[in-house]
Description:
- The complex is a heterodimer of chains A (115) and B (113).
- With 115 residues, chain A is mainly beta.
- Chain A has strands spanning 5-7, 10-13, 19-24, 31-37, 44-50, 53-57, 65-68, 75-79, 88-95, 105-106, 110-114.
- In chain A, strand 7 (65-68) and strand 8 (75-79) form a beta hairpin.
- Chain B has strands at residues 9-13, 18-23, 32-38, 45-50, 55-56, 61-64, 70-75, 84-91, 107-112.
Amino acid sequence: DTGVSQDPRHKITKRGQNVTFRCDPISEHNRLYWYRQTLGQGPEFLTYFQNEAQLEKSRLLSDRFSAERPKGSFSTLEIQRTEQGDSAMYLCASSLSPPSTGTQYFGPGTRLTVL
Amino acid sequence: DAKTTQPTSMDCAEGRAANLPCNHSTISGNEYVYWYRQIHSQGPQYIIHGLKNNETNEMASLIITEDRKSSTLILPHATLRDTAVYYCIVRGGNAGNNRKLIWGLGTSLAVNP
């Protein structure tokens, strides 16, 4: 399967712990996006990479959140000192740059539960 | 990016066509209409997108009105596996730094046996 993959699929942690999620995009895609989705809502944009450069971060991404894409391939999203409000599905998507229309393809998501 | 309006929920009988409407009256000339769906607890799945012309692929058809202020996603023969939340999103062209998707609440489609 050559789609977007995410690991782990589920994570349960205690408040105050740090967690890290990984996303592997479609191999030829140089754009990578992170979104967060809470129950009953549509996904919300968190941050975006073109190759290894992080070009935009949402105001939703507090100081406790950090994302990296060190070699322009896979990306990690780390949450430090987790809070119960961080419980959500974290989604990763990837796309091509222009001249493509940039359709974003999503992974299965990582569901985080903070106790 | 333009805002979209979709009905909260719809029902469809299995085997019949499901027609999901979307209003995007403030769409501008270079903005595309995208449709995704999300089956419970899974990541969103891309369905189809279009600019001006009607589009068809193996999953669905997209009908865009001539003034581009609304569109309809058509699932020609709905099955139980099409039960999902369907999102209509308007997004600018791919040029420029960031083409993030701005999501509403979508339409919850229930396909009934």
